[in-house]
Amino acid sequence: MGTSAARMLLFIILLKFGLRDILGAKPAERTLADFTVLFFAADLSLLAVIRPNQPLAYFLVPFGILILTYRLQKIVQQSSEKWLTQDPSVPPSMVREHELSMSGAAYASGTDHKYCPPMALPLIENGKVRGDNLRKIGKTQLWLRRELRNFGYRDLRQVNYLTMDDTGNFFMDLKNYSPEN
């Protein structure tokens, strides 16, 4: 009984110091990777406590590797964020792509870095082309008309609202339109 209690205290201390970022975060802010690390750490801790006859090293080595890889991943993530945001030679598109890929992890780790995805640009409103937004994305009205034709819409007046997100996906709301009107 004394071995199990000592092992339990040891693993509680290791969990507290090794995974303090995960344990301090709210469950809604954790990522799937965080839950996986917690699951494996709890599993190893439980096995070490319920099997006091097996050597402690069988459980400490994998537990240490788990904590070490988690810590290294956090260090690499933080240093890459600093490098991308501070280096003026990095193109802004690369910084934005990195922010997109890291936004969930940064939010889950509880840092101040909050990422809000950009809004889709409206290209057509009430059947009228928004030329200013077309210029922002470097496209012309001819390109827009061709894209609409590819979807089977020949008349711009059919479209009540059309947006395009940053990945090139179109979202369209059609009017109840008949060509006789």
TrEMBL record:
Official protein name in the record: YetF C-terminal domain-containing protein
Gene3D superfamilies xref list: bsu07140 like domains
Highest taxon in the source lineage: Bacteria
Start and end residues of each YetF C-terminal domain: 119-163
InterPro entries: DUF421, UPF0702_alpha/beta_dom_sf
Naturally occurring in which organism (per UniProt): Sporolactobacillus shoreae
Listed Pfam families: DUF421
